[in-house]
Amino acid sequence: MPSSGITAVDAAAKGMKLERYASGGALLLRRATSAKLVSASSHLLFRATVLATLALVFLFTLHYPSLLSRSFHLSSSSSSSPHPSSSASHRSLLMSSSSSASASYGGAAWEKEIRRSARPSRNDGGISVLVTGAAGFVGTHCSLALKARGDGVVGLDNFNSYYDPSLKRARQALLASRGVAVVDADINDAALLEKLFDVAAFTHVLHLAAQAGVRYAMEAPQTYVASNVAGLVSVLEVAAKHADPQPAVVWASSSSVYGLNTDAPFSEDHRTDRPASLYAATKKAGEAIAHTYNHIYGLSITGLRFFTVYGPWGRPDMAYFFFARSIVAGEPITLFRAADGSDARRDFTYIDDVVKGCLGALDTAGKSTGSRSGKKSGPAPLRVYNLGNTSPVPVTRMVAILEKLLGKKANKRIVTMPSNGDVPFTHANVSHAAHDFGYRPTTSLEAGLRHFVDWFVEYYKLDVKIAKGARSAADKPAKKKKAAAAMSASS
Ligand SMILES: O=C(O)[C@H]1O[C@H](OP(=O)(O)OP(=O)(O)OC[C@H]2O[C@@H](n3ccc(=O)[nH]c3=O)[C@H](O)[C@@H]2O)[C@H](O)[C@@H](O)[C@@H]1O
């Protein structure tokens, strides 16, 4: 019998040799010996195959841990195209949800990291927040602000390529430097969401992951349904039926739900049943879906209607951002004028003001009243608030401020607003948010755009001298440093 140190190939070769040299009279013995040898060989073959498989699995795990844990995966991919083809974008959403269905999460190290990031550090308790869309513009600022005041934060983001993913990765790196872990996954991945709630007892969900952009909805309608409708349902399902206890949910709706409403300023009491774009329709659908989950499952849900949020680390698909790019590059920009010939106007809202609104909404959310068993102990809060700046500014004025800051004239082309889902003006009444959590926007478009341009020039390493005259008396260099420090600490 071959010893266990001999390979199956050796054993088979020896068996053949023995057979070859056996005499004819010992046929029976030879057959028996041969049978033993074949059996021994297959044993060995089996053992060797198991050993080889184990070795391969070990090597695979060493080289591809991210496929097993799926967390903190850093991609070097970058795309400068703000709007990839609709099919590509939709595919990326679906792929990340379906591929992850078979993936396993966790492992001790992964769970430890999630727990660490989710743990509040405040002496007075603090909250623990799952932030979806954490590598997005508003998500990054809110996550930093929550962490800075001692709350626990775990981020979730699918890093899709709607706009340059390298900017999202840079935001993720900033979050990591402040101790916020961001899981690389899609909100449609229910298994992952459940796992996160099994590992960490989140008290709140700040649901900001969405397909944003008003006009892009005409190019890629399905991505809006996948993110803003199916994705929202996925998050609410897990919050309502799996999390124990249920968290309070605060999520991003949009000023666009006011659609063709002409009463101004827009109040939460106004009609929102005439959306002008599919984007707006999916956000309006989200508000109806929120009502259902609140009604049936007792989930505490707050919808925040954001009004054209802008600022440092912003979204490159938004007009103020790509106008700045085009002005620097000397490329033309197209300005939309309302059908009556007036300038389009927006209630541009600075990111730090919006962050204060989001934290105020989280702090006053009130508890959910349902449980895993499906019973609710009573009605839970269902709220919706405008988070705007309360002073609409013509888009032409926004461009003039950028021109002054960048020291360069824009090459403007003015056209009548095409039928693309856009609305001629937005204007927020924020009295409900002011009353319920002290929301008071304080940043003028001039001051906010200066903060944006400061960041923009530095981030893209542009050879641009920011015009001094564009600074207000309150923004002298010494104070500017302080303001920047405060901004990075709080947002
Ligand atoms: O507040 C909101 O509800 C929405 O605000 C923005 O949507 P929008 O106000 O259309 O922001 P931009 O795309 O940055 O457009 C700002 C203004 O610039 C105008 N614009 C845009 C693009 C362009 O090429 N030319 C132009 O004049 C638009 O008509 C609009 O008046 C965001 O993109 C949405 O995600 C958000 O939900």
From TrEMBL:
Keywords: Isomerase, Membrane, NAD, Transmembrane, Transmembrane helix. GO terms for molecular function: UDP-glucuronate 4-epimerase activity. It is an enzyme of class 5 (isomerase). GO terms for cellular component: Golgi cisterna membrane. It comes from Digitaria exilis. It is a multi-pass membrane protein. It holds the Pfam family Epimerase. This is UDP-glucuronate 4-epimerase. The keyword Protein transport does not apply. The chain crosses the membrane at residues 44-64. InterPro entries: Epimerase_deHydtase, NAD(P)-bd_dom_sf. The lineage of its organism: Eukaryota, Viridiplantae, Streptophyta, Embryophyta, Tracheophyta. It catalyses: UDP-alpha-D-glucuronate = UDP-alpha-D-galacturonate. The keyword Transmembrane applies. Belongs to the NAD(P)-dependent epimerase/dehydratase family. SUPFAM superfamilies: NAD(P)-binding Rossmann-fold domains. It is found in: Golgi apparatus, Golgi stack membrane. Residues 129-364 form the NAD-dependent epimerase/dehydratase domain. Residues 471-491 are annotated as: Disordered. Its EC number is 5.1.3.6.
